[in-house]
Design a protein that fits this description.
single chain; about 325 residues; alpha/beta; Rossmann fold; GMP Synthetase, Chain A, domain 3; 5-stranded parallel sheet; about 40% helix; globular; binds xanthosine-5'-monophosphate; glutamine amidotransferase; GMP biosynthesis; purine biosynthesis; ATP binding; GMP synthase [glutamine-hydrolyzing]
């Protein structure tokens, strides 16, 4: 029978046999796959592993700090933290088209990845948190026709981007490639990852940037980050976080009139998007209690400066998508 302990031991042996004393680069994303991978790789090869975390500036409140802290203080795995926030924001100035935003973020990510990997490198291998379904999906694209070996052609969290330049086509080490998501979660839990990471809702590579409709500005990011925090905080407190496939806030670039005390307000509406789903391909809007909506709405308007209205999305997928961009 399959046990997490047996898997971990076997994966460590396999990694050691494959990479020997070569150097390996790993890009942490904050999700369960790359976090579990980092732990395994570090157990297998220690200092020959370099964990890099590129902060695009689009993660949720406290997430980057917590991730770095978890790895450095609890796991004693050093993390190369790359603060690229300004750089991504600058590139997105004036950009409103959703696909353009994704492209720019993806390309910028590869640019930063390239610079940082040559600064920290050279590396022989790239460790990726490829899972079994990803292997099937990329069956031929990731194989070098000359050697038959799997090589990195894309960064896992930025599927939508064209691909890695030739000189970044590291050989891959993918110790999670035989696992399904629920198995990675089991392994993640067994090595002591917090539930916050193990059962995190799916979060897109471009992060909060595609949940701000239209142009991304520092002020809008601040508003959405605070609004997103209210959603997560409230459903976690009520113990219902895991009742949803995803539950998040979307910031609209329009403003509407409201009133607070004896003051007229003119501020942004926030959309609540709560869905249930099996795999993200189709989804149902969640029939949440009115009381929950009321609490979130009150907190949102009172705690998040710049928001004066909250609306609930009652569109399933199809015809809607889960994200708004
Ligand atoms: P949609 O909006 O297409 O989303 O119904 C389906 C699932 O995919 C996630 N998603 C993304 N994930 N990069 C990602 O890594 C992206 O650009 C992206 N866009 C959507 C979305 O959160 C949902 O789980």
């Amino acid at each position: 029978t399959w046990t997490t302990e047996a898997f971990v031991e076997e994966a460590i042996r396999e990694v050691r046999a494959k990479v020997g004393d070569k150097r390996v680069l790993l890009a942490l994303s904050g999700g369960v796959d790359s976090s579990t991978l980092a732990f395994l790789m570090h157990r297998a090869i220690g200092d020959n592993l370099t964990c890099m975390f590129i902060d695009q500036g689009f993660m949720r409140k406290y997430e980057p700090e917590r991730l770095v802290k978890l790895f450095e203080e609890q796991f004693h795995i050093p993390v190369q933290y790359v603060n690229a926030r300004e750089r991504f924001l600058t590139k997105l100035e004036g950009v409103t088209d959703p696909e353009k935003k994704r492209k720019i973020i993806g390309h910028e990510f590869i640019g930063v990845f390239e610079e940082e990997s040559s600064r920290l490198g050279p590396f022989d291998y790239l460790a990726q948190g490829t899972l079994y379904p990803d292997v099937i999906e990329s069956a031929d694209t990731n194989v070098d026709p000359q050697t038959g070996e799997r090589v990195a052609v894309k960064i896992k969290s930025h599927h939508n981007v064209g691909g890695l330049p030739k000189d970044l086509r590291f050989k891959l080490v993918e110790p999670l490639r035989k696992l399904f998501k629920d198995e990675v979660r089991k392994v993640g839990r067994s090595i002591g990852l917090p539930e916050e990471i193990v059962r995190r809702h799916p979060f897109p590579g471009p992060g909060l940037a595609i949940r701000i409709i239209g142009e991304v500005t520092p002020e809008r990011l601040r508003i959405l980050r605070d609004a997103d925090f209210v959603v997560r905080d409230e459903i976690s407190k009520q113990g219902i976080y895991h009742d949803f496939w995803q539950a998040f806030a979307v910031l609209l670039p329009v403003r509407s009139v409201g009133v607070m005390g004896d003051q007229r307000t003119y501020a942004h509406p926030v959309v609540l998007r709560f869905v249930s789903s099996e795999d993200g391909m189709t989804a149902d809007w969640s029939r949440v209690p009115y009381d929950l909506l009321e609490i979130i709405s009150n907190r949102m308007v009172n705690e998040v400066k710049g928001v004066n209205r909250v609306v609930y999305d009652i569109t399933s997928k199809p015809p809607g998508t889960i994200e708004w961009e």
